[in-house]
Structure formats: C-alpha cells, structure tokens
Amino acid sequence: MSVLVYTESENGAFKKNAFEVASYANAVASQMGTAATAVSFNCSEAESLGAYGITKVLNIADEKLKTFSAKAYAHALVEAAKSEDATVIIVSSSTDSKFLAPILTAKLKAGYVPNVVAAPESTSPFVVKRTAFSNKGFGQTQINTDVKIIGVSNNSFGAHENNTTATIENFSPTLSEADYNVKSIEIDKAVGKVTIADADIVVSGGRGLKGPENWGMIEELAEVLGAATACSKPVSDMGWRPHGEHVGQTGKPVASNLYIAIGISGAIQHLAGVSASKVKVVINTDEEAPFFKAADYGIVGDAFEVVPQLVQKLKEFKAQNA
Prior knowledge:
- About 30% of the residues lie in helices and about 25% in strands.
- It has helices at about 15-30, 70-85, 95-110, 215-225, 235, 270-275, 290-295, 305-320; strands spanning about 1-5, 10, 15, 35-40, 55-60, 85-90, 110-115, 120-125, 125-130, 135-145, 150, 165-170, 200-205, 230, 260, 280-285, 295-300.
- Strand 13 (about 200-205), helix 4 (about 215-225) and strand 14 (about 230) form a beta-alpha-beta unit.
- Helix 2 crosses helix 3 and helix 4 runs parallel beside helix 8.
C-alpha cells in the first residue's frame, strides 16, 4: 500500500504544480503511515522531488512520451500503480490531468474527486474537502473505492519542503500502438512568457481597453510584476488577444495569488473561473460593475490613467528596494 503521484514536466523540467502535488502526496502518505512514490516522464531533475518528501521516483524515459498523450500516460500510470501497490493516486488540476484522471478512474475502477483543497480530513474513512458550485462552497466527499484518485486544486495546498533523499528508478511500461491513437499534430504556445497555469500573479484585460493597440500597458504592468497576461472572453472572441489567454469558466481557470482585472465588468462565467485566486483587484470606470462585489480591492477610475501611474509607482518601489 502506497501513495503514487503524477508529476508534470515540460522540456525535462518540472512544472510548478509538480511540487505542490508532491507535497500533497507526502502529507497523505504521512497520514497513512506509508511512503510517497512519484512518476515522472522524461524529466532530468527527478531527484529534486526529494525536497518535497518523495522517497522514490519512477522515471520513464521514452521519446514517444515527450508530448502528453492521455491514453498512453494513463496506461503507464496504471502499470506504476500496480507495481507499487498504490491505493491512492494524486494528480493536479491542470488540463492534462483532467484528461488523464477519468481514464485512470475507468482502468483502476477507482473513485475520483477533483478540486481538492486540503489534506484528507480522515483516511479511514477516506474524506477530502473539495470546492463546489464554481468555488462558491465546499463539500466533504467520502471515497469508498479500494483505489482513490485525488485531483489537487492548483495553488490550494502549496509546495512544502520536507527534505529526504529520493531514489530514482528507471521504469519502462509496456505500451502498444493502440495507446497512441490520439496524437498531437501541432502545439501553438507562447514562448518566453510566464504561463497562466504557473503564474503567481495574473494581469487580465477586458473590453474596457477599447482595442488591441492599447494592450501594451497590460504587458508593461505584467512585466513589472513578473506576471502572466490574460483576457476576458469578448477580447479573445474579437481577436484582440489569442484564445490561449482567455480565462474564466469557459476558458482557463485561474488560481493565482493575485489577479488584477482591468476593464473587465465581471460576467458570472468570468468570475467563476477566477474566484479561486487568493486576492482579486479590479480597475474599472463603472462603480456598479459586478466585479467590485467579488474583488478584495477595487479602484473606480480610468485604466488609461490608473495603470500608467501604478506601473510608475511599482518601478520606483522596485528601484528603491533593489
């Protein structure tokens, strides 16, 4: 009996969420009196997981698996789970993991609970706390199956160092051509920017910016803060920004430490998708905009006046504290 965790990586390096799910797996393993084993794919820094309590890493080195494939990855994880006699499997809440988890659930006849925000309330019975109703409430969910799969909500549990030494083992699952029925033909991705999924701070713009030619101030503010840029659905629909930057319930979910909404009124779908962010700031000329009711801080003002002043003050602050 052990805890298995899928740690996501890209270009040989772990993503931010890998360390969060590793920390969560270590916490669950401690509660159960067992050890946490990680599975990594083509990662060159597998030993770094030891800093988060992982005692063993099964590293899969396979050129065919350099690009995420839900079916192939699921098959590999099933073999790993059976090899390690894992009764609890931890994944993140990334898009990849949300594709992966249902396949794992079917193959292992497991119970799957997504959007989990805390370590289990109890492991016998197995009860976890998860968000519900688009992050407006919480539910206590009991998992009764022999194998349990937990999807940890991004930026909820956090990455916690618990230094140990991780043993690295090469793991070679038996995969067939049928496992590669779905293939990625092309990947279109922004280069050299902080991604929305990994960002601690997200700066987002809406129709209040009046046109794509004004997006420079969003990018400048994001650069000063080391943030990712995002946008509302109407902005991406009008072609001002790529659809990959669309956040909200119908776009990418955001669970950042700080979310700054500029010129966004706050449609219910947008608010539902960003409500998991810890601190929300809104800048809008309309004091009746719905976003003000959901925000922690708000500025009623013209973004074309407020944002340049904010950028200037931040630059001065950074220069004084360099």
